[in-house]
Amino acid sequence: MKLTVRKAAEAIKKGGIVAFPTETVYGLGADAFNQEAVRKTFALKGRPSDNPLIVHISGLHQLDKLVKTKPNYFNKLTKSFWPGPLTFVLEKQPSVPDVVTGGLSTVAVRMPDHPLALDLIEQTGPLTAPSANKSGRPSPTSPEHLIHDYGDKIDYVDGGPCRIGLESTVLDLTGEQPAILREGAITAKMIKKQYGIEVAEAITQSSLDAPKSPGVKYTHYKPDATVRWLSNNDRPSPNTVWLIHSNNITEEGDQIIRFDGDFDRMARQLYDEFRRADLLGISEIAIEPLPSPNHHPLISALENRISKAIHQ
Ligand code: TXA
Ligand code: MG
Predict the structure, then answer these.
(1) 206 domain residue, yes or no
(2) 214 in a structural domain
(3) CB neighbour list of residue 16: distance below 8 Å, 6 or more residues apart
(4) Ligand 1 center to residue 250 CA distance, Å?
(5) Do 293 and 178 belong to one domain?
(6) Residues 135-148: what's their mean pLDDT?
(7) Residue 207 has pLDDT above 50, yes or no
């Protein structure tokens, strides 16, 4: 059911779960200090319990009860990038329930750049919010996607479509050097440019036994349709959605979606296209190979999400 922010806050304070919009994707919000509510979030999503949740805050004053030590450059980072699509992993306070962090000694925190999210969290206090999809499905970027996954069982705050459309960058600040665990709209290059802080780029972690970010080992972002890169011998077919970003491909067809070099729009619509193909019963999505990451800040994140949809 659609709820106002005030009703959503009341429901969350009573231990309920309410989906809410952020600038990246919709999150499934619960009171971060209510273990029972957090446990219910895992059950509702069908998420493995060792995959920790991001705690969302509305103000820096909420950090003290969540994180222990912060590196000396932390304030600079938050000043530039918060509210925004950047999540920090830091040592957690003992009061943060283990169920939130999947037993890790660290906690992920983010201040989302969305007025409804900030208003909600201001009323409830810190909220755990995984992307609101059922586990393994593409993240929801509109209220319609929530209904696809949960039917009318879900309570949500309606913020319309999300502005960015891909999940936040996750930056680990607990090591010697900041390291990107998941690519998003904020890149290593942007952080470096702003402050000269060296940031380790994301590494392919599927080959590691104990990945630093537990989420990377699970299936993600996958529609029912088979996702693959477009190849030179492809011909348009009603059974394949084409996602095309350049003007090099001139074929025409009903299922050819063009982004004309607009990678912001491609990111914003990627998961919606995945879900649209499923609703139409289209069996394949073929995506034009992306140019080098220097081309646009969202290319690394797009490449990462598309590769996961292809390979897992
Ligand atoms: O944009 C986003 O980040 C969205 C919106 C709702 O804020 N949230 C989101 O949450 O994508 P989720 O749960 O779907 O993804 C969180 C990622 C997972 O890959 C998880 O493993 C990682 O963050 N993570 C959470 N806590 C962590 C920790 N303590 N250490 C390392 N990685 C962590
Ligand atoms: Mg997710």
Answers:
(1) no
(2) no
(3) 30, 37, 155
(4) 39
(5) no
(6) 96
(7) no
* Domain shared by 163 and 32, yes or no: yes
Residues 51 and 165 in one domain: yes
The residue type found at 291 is P
Closest residue CA from atom 18 of ligand 1: 215
Reported as a single tens digit per residue, the pLDDT across 240-252 is 999 999 999 999 9
Residues 251 and 123 reside in one and the same domain: no
Contact 310/230 with Cβ under 8 angstroms? no
Q: How far is the CA of 251 from the centre of ligand 2 (A)?
A: 34
In contact, 47 and 130? CB cutoff 8 Å: yes
pLDDT above 90 covers what percent of the chain? Answer: 89
Same-domain status, 74 and 178:
yes
Q: With a 6 A CB cut-off, is 138 part of the ligand 1 pocket? A: no
9 pLDDT higher than 50: yes
Q: Is the pTM of this model over 0.90?
A: yes
What is the model's pLDDT at position 202? 87
Domain co-membership, 60 together with 185: yes
Domains in the chain, number: 2
Q: Tell me which amino acid residue 117 is.
A: A
The residue whose two tokens read 């992920």 is 108
CATH of the domain at 37: 3.90.870.10
Going by their DSSP bridges, the two strands 284-287 and 226-229 should be labelled as parallel
Report residue 22 CA to chain centroid gap: 10
Ligand 1 centre to CA of 168 (Å) is: 8
Instruction: Note down the domain range covering 50.
Output: 5-195
Would the CB of 99 count as within 6 Å of ligand 1?
no
